[in-house]
Amino acid sequence: MIKIDISSARIDYWRHCCQAKLGSSEETPFGPDTLVYKAGGKIFALLRLAKPLSINLKCDPQEAMILRASFDSVTPGYHMNKKHWNTIDLSAGLASGLVEGWLDDSYALVLKGLPKALQARLAGKQ
Prior knowledge:
alpha+beta, globular
């Protein structure tokens, strides 16, 4: 019987999701336990590898409050500006598609804040 390390598979899955964003880079400025994903030099996700596996995502402030009220596994951003960031416990059983949507929103918020020329370059239009 082949034994699969589910936590490694989950980490690989979320790494792939973050790395698939155009212009995404992966860094470890806070040490090996936290993978930081940037687009245009701005952070859009932090994947915390310690248990429980979690991800910090940028969020519209009003949406952030709604998500926290709706899901026990969504809390104010760990070590982040709590108004603009949420931490999602990836071991809590939320549907991957739901979290992927929040990842897309986080990436879009970061892109929106970049200079237009850089936005165009990341989108492959320049």
